[in-house]
Every structure is written in C-alpha cells, then in structure tokens.
C-alpha cells in the first residue's frame, strides 16, 4: 500500500494542491504548475 499512498491523499480533487499552496506557497510548484517531487517526498516522510 505504501507505493500508492498518493491515491489516498487525493480522494478529493484539488485538496492536495490546495494544501501544498497553503503550506509552501508558490515554492511548492514547478514552472509548469505541477507539485514538486521534493514536496511529495517530504509528505511521504511525515506518514
């Protein structure tokens, strides 16, 4: 189940993006607008 942790985090569309924007601001996103991999890795460590 650990490989698919992200699917549980995004049960509601936009929730993860909103959380990243609240915690990291624009620093949490790439120029393309996707969530930075480093941010996702930090979330995984928190679990």
Total DSSP helices: 3
Mean pLDDT, nearest integer?
Answer: 84
Largest beta-sheet details: none
Cα-based radius of gyration, to the nearest Å: 11 Å
Helix content: 40-55%
The domain tally reads 1
Question: What is the strand and helix layout of this fold?
Answer:
Layout lengths: L4 H5 L5 H10 L12 H10 L1
Could you give a quick summary of the protein structure above?
The chain contains three helices and no strands.
Task: Please provide a written account of the structure.
- With 47 residues, this protein is mainly α.
- It has one domain.
- The chain is built from three helices and no strands.
- The chain has helices spanning 5-9, 15-24, 37-46.
- It holds the Pfam family Fusello_VP2_Capsid.
- InterPro entries: Fusello_VP2 (IPR057843).
Key attributes of the depicted protein:
47 residues, mainly alpha, 3 helices, Fusello_VP2
